[in-house]
Each structure stands twice: as structure tokens, then as C-alpha cells.
Amino acid sequence: xxxxxxxxxxxxxxxxxxxxxxxxxxREIGQRYDFKGTDSSIELKGEExxxxxxxxxxxxxxxxxxxxxxxxxxxxxxxxxxxxxEAAAKGRAxxxxxxxxxxxxxxxxxxxxxxxxxxxxxxxxxxxxxVRVVGKSKDDLQAAIALLRQADLPIPLQFTxxx
Length: 163
Description:
Layout: E1 5-10, H1 15-31, E2 41-45, E3 48-53, H2 56-72, E4 80-87, E5 93-99, H3 105-118, E6 123-127, E7 130-135, H4 138-150, E8 158-160
Antiparallel strand pairs: 1-7, 1-8, 2-3, 3-5, 4-5, 6-7
Helix pairs in contact: 1-2
């Protein structure tokens, strides 16, 4: 019998594509008639976005523009984790949107639990912010990938290092 096969379950996004989506959204917002003179901005700061506008309604419109740019660039919308809208200076509104990356403990445990319940032959373990799945048969590994794709988790999953 061949040696064990494995893959990692990770949650990542292409940072450069995210930068491009934000740039495109920023440009579109700057050109739109409904945003003229509102001094609205969308900024990528490390692992989060800062949206600033003169109303909560404009924040929503900005987020919609960003989402359309992300979809065009192939960035999964599940990456976005919008935080509560805050009141900013001079009656403005601000919203931070965290960018999900990596599997947190709770999600990693959920992935492990799902796989062990459905596919007991697989060895599944958490390694930092990813989950390693090891099995004797490639069919079992493919079944695991299919199971996780159908799971509709709150974050995008990718399957890497398939050996």
C-alpha cells in the first residue's frame, strides 16, 4: 500500500488582489455622483479596512462597491468581518472591517469534529492556524474536501500541500 497522503485546510486570501480591489473601490467612490463632496474614504490598514463616510448609508454603499470589486478579483466575500458602525467626529460614521485569515481555535475544532464524525479513518490535527488531514486513501481525502466545501463555514477555506 502506498504511503499516507495529506493536505492542509487553511483560510487565506490573496493580499495583492485585496489591495487591488480596495484601490478600484476607492477610485469608483471618488468618481460617483452620490459621493461627490462627501470626503468618503476606504483604507486598507494591515489586516483590516477602515471605511469613513458622512452617513451610515454611505458606508453601506461603499461596502457594496468594495464587494463587487472583490468578486471581480476572485477574493471570497467571507474574508470580510464588518464590525459595528461607530460615530466619528463631526457627525460622520466610521466602520472597521476585519479581514479573516487563518482558522481560529473554534473553527479549527469545528473542522476537526466534522471530519472525525464523517470520516473516522482520517487523522486530523490542528497545527497553528491550519488543520492537517492525513489518510491512507486519496478517496478519503477527496471526500474530506467535498465535506468541508459543503459545510458552509463563515470563512473561505482552501486546501493546500496536497500530497
